[in-house]
Amino acid sequence: MQDCRINGLEAMKRVDDFRLKLGSQELVPIMVGGMGVDISTADLALEAARLGGVGHISDAMLPTVSDRRYNTKYVKNKLQQYKFNVANTDKSVVQFDLGLIAEATATHVGRTMERKRGAGMVFINCMEKLTMNAPKETLRVRLRTAMDHGIDGITLAAGLHLGSLSLIEDHPRFRDVQLGIIVSSLRALQLFLKKSARTGRLPDYVVVEGPLAGGHLGFGMDWAQYDLATIVAEIRDWMREQQLDIPLIPAGGIFTGTDAVNFLEAGAAAVQVATRFTVTKECGLPDEVKQDYFKAEEDEIEVNQISPTGYPMRMLKSSPAIGSGIRPNCEAYGYLLDSTGNCQYIEAYNREVAAHPDAKKVKVLDKTCLCTHMRNFDCWTCGHYTYRLKDTTVREDNGDYRILSAEHVFNDYRFSTEGRVALPE
User: CA spacing 20 to 30 A to 46: which of 81, 100, 353, 405?
Assistant: First the structure.
């Protein structure tokens, strides 16, 4: 950390003047959020760790990610197994093999951790809403396998996770691995702590995600009525009353190092950031999609309800996923099938097919086949301030914006002051 005095005067603080303490480690207080599917790649997470912060990989659709990254055949083999059911509207028969889920998770986590360098940490973001036609059983396998293969921490996301700690409380690393929860309200945190109390295990950190975050939101369509700083202050004050010393990590709309410092000075232990890393070389988005993010204007970003999870979702209005009426691909994917084999997109698709029996293609406007479109990088989820990305880089002679390195973005958060953003040289 740097001395904050220059010629006897107090200098403006930077993120690097603070440290996040997790267990016995002191870290640069920058956490790169977990973005699926394979947007937060191993390369991105490892770079954050190398630089002394915390990076995330995502456990979203790991068999599919494994096929892309490690030349496995999980999707092809699953489709072959359930091909007989493709035309059936009832998807309850489509099940994941728990052993294969464990295998795919072991491969991705194990190979990532083998490559880890530096003083930082690599976490995995685990989504409860990834129900996979067997919510408890599949989540248990994903959590425990990540722990088996050396993950530094697990961030519980996309759900209240009221029973998640009980799924791993008998694991040898239950007291060793860093465990955190993402919440968007004090009430959600209180429910989690109450339900998890029987395990005798508090979370090691709490990510407080505000209404300007990317992707799925923990708010209703009234999200604009909420404010991250207000929610963080409410949770911080309640925790002090309860004498709970758990690091708070605000997330959503933290675009500059100065934004981060404002939260750190108000008592936050670190910040979680993601949007600015979507346009880095290490991010999993195709380069042409990164250009769409750079070019986006403020009025080209919306919060809609097309996700079959039931959560509102922020994305670019130009996302190919919006209005697409492709046939559900549950036999190949099926990650959002609930415990009865249903999905809101299947219901919406079948409704449109019934309403237009002679149509070769239908449009489904109210929901989207999230599995297929996320796999194909056609669902362009993004943070509120995506329209500012163009101001973080330079434009090349061919009109494209220069894609950044994760190191550049990380260090800009770490060292910048006065709301400035450093452009690449």
Answer: 100
Secondary structure (H, E, C), 175-205: CCCEEEEEECCHHHHHHHHHHHHHHCCCCCE
Strands (DSSP E) contained in 138-258 are 153-157, 178-183, 205-209, 215-216, 248-251
Whether omega for the bond prior to residue 421 falls within 30 degrees of 0, making it cis, is no
For residues 76-106, one letter each, b for 16 or more C-beta atoms within 10 angstroms of the residue's C-beta and e for the rest, the string is: eebbeebeeeeeeeebeebbbebebbbbbbb
Burial class (CB in 10 A: 0-12, 13-18, 19+), 336: buried
Rounded to two decimals, the pTM is 0.96
What are the helix and strand counts (H, E) for the chain? 12, 15
Banded pLDDT at 2 (limits 50, 70, 90) = very low
What mean pLDDT do residues 60-68 have? 97
Other Cβ atoms closer than 10 A to 188? 20
Looking at residue 336, its amino acid is L
Per-residue pLDDT tens digits for 230-254: 999 999 999 999 999 999 999 999 9
- Using DSSP bridges, classify how beta strands 215-216 and 248-251 pair: parallel, antiparallel or unpaired: unpaired
Contact 22, 178 (CB under 8 A): yes
